[in-house]
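PROTEIN DATA CARD
Card holder: Nucleotide-diphospho-sugar transferase domain-containing protein
Chain length: 297
Origin: Populus davidiana
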Amino acid sequence: MEKVLQEAAMEDKTVIIATLNEAWAAPNTVIDLFLESFRIGQGTRRLLDHLVIVALDEKAYRRCMELHTHCFALVTRGLDFHDEAYFMTHVYLEMMWRRIDFLRSLLEMGYNFVFTDADIMWFRDPFPRFFLDADFQIACDHFSGNSSDIQNRPNGGFNYVKSNKRSIEFYKFWYSSRETYPGFHDRDVLNFIKFDPFIESLGLKIRFLDTAFFGGLCEPSKDLNLVCTMHANCCFGLDSKLHDLGIMLQDWKTFLSLPPTLKRSLSLSWRVPQNCSLNSPHQHESPEKSVQQTVGH
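Structure generated from the sequence above:
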């Protein structure tokens, strides 16, 4: 693992981490769209050099080796993560908590990381949009308008974490809290513990990322001139996800093809969600439906 991390790390020991299982690694599925977004995004192609794909099963590892330079096989004894892990099933929860524990180990090794789900499209380099002084910053399903507001609804699919004593203790606390709240998703547990006095006593500086830059299907980024990443959240089922991710990529390509003056002057938005329901099980509350204008009209 150390060798893969050393080869992928930026000068400040930052790596980009994505996890992958067989269901998302099959040809013409999530991993292909994910990597394509880096190749066609603005300032994102070079970030592929710093991306480590963590495979959760053997087939995902083999596919990663066909597609990408930096791959690592994370084997978990007694658990099989190769099928599509349906939201909130036992396998899904185990996969999410294994991820939290793995990310804690990276922090202990001295690596900062951007963790990204593979169903997040990278359209622009996100690093200029990160807060310089935060220990832990995380994307939101719904953003309140204030990056310090603890009432924001975080989504564990995208976060940027700096390695220090505060972040390491926080990840240990987060992981151990799964026993305090059995049967809950890592994001739900985060929503419980973010109010805990222990977090304040750590001095951990948390920031929530604005959906204007780090959007998703729950709350799409409204301005394609600003968007960095778009997440296929609020979406249930792989087929629905693939359908809407494909449209998302096509919308981005249409935007890129426009002359600069039109990019700035047209009020373009996404044609998604379509097959992804805004009322899917991924969601705690219904967002206001974003105004959608068909890209290309």
